[in-house]
Amino acid sequence: MSNRPSLSTLHRGFRNDYLDYEQLLQQLEGWVWAYPDLVRLKELARTPEGRRVWVMTIGPEPDRVRPALWIDGNMHASELVGSNVALAVAEAVLALHIGEPGALDTLPPAARQTITECLIHVCPRVSPDGAEAVHTTGRWVRSVPRDDRPETGKPKWVAGDINDDGRSLLIRKEDPTGEFVASDAVDGLFHLRQLGDEGPFYKVWPEGVIQSFDGHHVPSPDYFSDNYPDLNRNFSYDWRGERDQAGAGDYPGSEPESRALHEFARDNPNLFAWVNLHTFGGVGIRPLGDQPDSKMDPSDLAIYRQLGDWLETFTGYPMVSGHDEFTYSPDTPIRGDLSEWAYRERGCVSFVVELWDLFKRIGMERPKRFVDFYTHLTREDQLALAKWDAEHNGGRVFVGWTAHEHAQLGSVDVGGIDPIVGLWNPPQALIPEMCDAMVEVVGRVCAMAPKLVLTLGTEELADGLTRVVCTVENYGYLPTNILNSAKGLSVDSEPIATICDVDVIGLPTTEVGHLDGWGRGKFDGSDALYALRSRGSTGRRVVSFLVRGTGTATVKVGCARTGWVNATVAV
């Protein structure tokens, strides 16, 4: 199509700002309208508030099975920039397909070609209801702004805008038993109380009201006081109930959003890579989530070392083990999360990226366990954050306190921290940098796809017989089983060869078996100077069929994970 609109004319601002639901949908629909031969938009689920969870599939002939990469964002409501990055990946892949300059042009030609031969599934907003609540009210929502748990009569906090300023921040109330003191240097900043602090002392709670308040006892707020569950604890691998895993939901896939991803993966076993975008921190989190690296398949670990190298090269983010550096309590794995499910049950090269390296930007020293960044802030670190906020973020994070008469608690102050831009998400000026860096990473992940190549030949035999010789090769980085640990999973299927359109003597189908890729990840030992050796012909297999008579034979080779390739030969 020579009259295609350019991508720039279709851009709806995701490189410059955070999009609400309608703006995001306009971007997706604009691409579908402009490139109907390359883009298909599908509704995965409808939320309780009536919004759709969309997935956009990029690639010609979207129903033709071939290796596919999935990328999603905004599973957690406040983590808006994941949507921007997912859209940036979509735009970059479209640019490759239509021949426009784009962020993937830095990749080698062969890698770019591999990307165009894959399918790319982009789900930019897994929790549209949650994101919309953050956009419109600024209230805290972990994943979804609903709570279907039976009413118990126990008091709980319900977040909301009590002073009609369009935001839902924090309230503080002076209290001699309070755990916090106000900063002398920054209005809106408070510190944990220490020996020697002279007060006044404060209790700090979410802006909102207390449901079922008895007039005396203020409940302790938590992540899920009025919003439940956490979509990223609602996946089937190693799922545990609420007693063992906060936010788990009633059962795996109990929520329409997470259930839709389960079902999509079930229907698409050709998914080989899964990128799950979150904020914040500036880190990649890889499997294993529940065991140390000594329990991980060594070849899988080598693949993840390569991914980690790319991630750090282009974003500056390290890649860490979920078990070793991202369990909130040591030896207490996170249960039911998406990335571990995609790796363990769907056999995907999967990982999380916590976008937005705020800790690095304010000069914090990396702790032994990356997750400790979030809780091990000194007062000096907090003041460094406030200084960064004032100089680089327009002072949006720390909001001065204003007096308010609370209907239940009496005299309080409203203000404190507005985390949407600056904490949860980067300033808008940094969105392009984040998008371009992650496109470089995701492009390389996609370029790892297995790639089957089929070559046919013939050998003339006596009595009108011909042997059709099929040479099947994998030109791709990854093997046809994707990961060694994926062998034996329900998604695992070995390539087979089938011949048709001719008179076959014997069975028309034969096993080919899995084929190695040429990639070895990083530091798997293959490049040790004392043992530079290749494997044998493990990426190539030759099978044959015996046919009678003349005609044109068609051979199809592949499996559910790799898709299929066809070739014909005259006999």
Describe the structure.
The protein is an alpha+beta fold and 571 residues long. The protein folds into 3 domains: 277 residues, Aminopeptidase; 138 residues, no CATH class; 119 residues, Immunoglobulin-like (Sandwich), CATH 2.60.40. It is 23% helix and 25% strand. It is built from 12 helices and 24 strands. The chain has an 8-stranded mixed sheet with strand order 1-2-4-3-11-14-12-13, with helices on both faces. The longest helix is centred in the first third of the chain and has 18 residues. It is elongated, with a radius of gyration of 27 Å. The two termini are 38 Å apart. The mean pLDDT is 95.
What distinguishing features does this structure have?
571 residues, alpha+beta, Aminopeptidase, Immunoglobulin-like, 3 domains, eight-stranded mixed sheet, six-stranded antiparallel sheet, 25% strand
Shape: elongated
Distance between the termini: 38 Å
Strand ordering within the main sheet: 1-2-4-3-11-14-12-13
How would a textbook summarize the main sheet?
8 strands, mixed
Helix content: 10-25%
Query: On the 0-100 scale, what is the average pLDDT?
Result: 95
Write down how many β-strands occur, each being a DSSP E stretch of 2 or more residues. 24
CATH superfamily of the largest domain: Zn peptidases
CATH class of the largest domain: Alpha Beta
Question: Helix tally?
Answer: 12
